[in-house]
Design a protein that fits this description.
The chain is of the alpha+beta class. The protein is built from three helices and 17 strands. A six-stranded antiparallel β-sheet has the order 3-4-16-15-14-9. The chain has a five-stranded antiparallel β-sheet with strand order 12-11-10-13-17. A four-stranded antiparallel β-sheet has the order 1-6-7-8, with no helix packed on it. The protein starts with 6 loop residues before the first strand and ends with a strand.
Length: 229
C-alpha cells in the first residue's frame, strides 16, 4: 500500500525564522523534526530555533530566499507536499510548483554537537528597542563595529568605527559590572530577529544571544582584538 503523502503548511512565524536564517546562510539543511539549525559560510554565526511544525524528513534547500519568495509571492497559503524524495510540491488551489532538493554535500551545515560557551564572563539583557536603536545608528552613520564595553562599573554597548578615532559613535548602558573589557563584533554579524535577548559573552571570543520570546538562540563570534581584564 502506498504511504499517504505528507502535507503541511508553514506558519508566518516559521517563515520569519527562515527568512532570518537566509541572511546567515543562503542554504539550509532541514532535519526531520522541529529543530532548525544553520551556520554562516565563515562559521562565525550559528543559529538554532524550535518551530511549531514537525518536518517529515531531511531535505536540503540550496537557495532559501528563492524558496521563501515562491511560498509568499506566488502563493498565499500554500501546502507543501513531501511525498516525493527529490522535490517538494508547493500547491494551492489549481496552482503548483515543484521545488527540487539540493544535495546535502553542497550545504555548509552546523556541527552535530551542540555548541557551548567555553566561559560565561559577562551577561546582560538587550531589549528590542535598544537593539533597534543600535542597528539604526550604525546604519545612519555607517558604523561597522558594535562593541560591548565594561568600564567604570557599567556595561555599555556602542556602535563606532574602531579604526577612526574621530568617528561618530552611539552608546547606551545595559548593565553593571566590576570588570574591564571590550568585546568587539562586526555589525554585519548581528543578524538576529528583532526582540529582547539575554546575552552572555565569553572572553574566549564567543557570545550567545537567547531570545526571551522564542526558543531561538544565536552564537556569534567576537573579533580577535577583543580584550578582557
Amino acid at each position: 500500500m502506498k504511504q499517504q503523502p505528507v502535507v503541511m503548511k508553514l506558519s508566518d512565524k516559521t517563515l520569519s525564522f527562515l527568512k532570518n536564517f537566509s541572511t546567515i546562510n543562503q542554504s539550509l539543511l532541514f532535519k526531520q523534526g522541529s529543530r532548525l539549525r544553520t551556520i554562516s559560510v565563515m562559521k562565525n554565526i550559528l543559529a538554532e530555533v524550535t518551530i511549531d511544525e514537525e518536518l517529515p524528513k531531511d531535505f536540503g534547500i540550496y537557495d532559501l530566499s528563492q524558496f521563501l519568495n515562491i511560498n509568499t509571492t506566488l502563493f498565499q497559503s500554500p501546502e507543501l507536499d513531501f511525498d516525493n524524495d527529490g522535490y517538494v510540491m508547493i500547491r494551492e488551489g489549481r496552482s503548483k510548483q515543484r521545488f527540487f532538493f539540493a544535495d546535502p554535500s553542497v550545504i555548509v551545515t552546523p556541527p552535530e554537537k551542540n555548541l557551548e560557551l567555553p566561559t560565561e564572563d559577562v551577561s546582560f539583557e538587550l531589549k528590542t528597542e535598544q537593539l533597534d536603536r543600535l542597528l539604526k545608528a550604525a546604519a545612519i552613520s555607517q558604523l561597522p563595529d558594535l562593541c560591548v564595553v565594561g568600564e567604570n562599573g557599567v556595561v555599555k554597548i556602542l556602535v563606532r568605527d574602531k579604526k577612526n578615532d574621530t568617528s561618530n559613535d552611539y552608546s547606551l548602558t545595559v548593565g553593571e559590572t566590576d570588570k574591564t573589557f571590550s568585546f568587539n563584533f562586526k555589525v554585519e554579524n548581528i543578524k538576529i530577529l528583532p526582540g529582547t535577548y539575554n546575552v552572555v559573552v565569553s572572553s574566549k571570543l564567543l557570545s550567545r544571544f537567547t531570545s526571551a520570546n522564542h526558543d531561538l538562540t544565536y552564537y556569534i563570534a567576537l573579533e580577535p582584538d577583543s580584550t578582557f581584564e
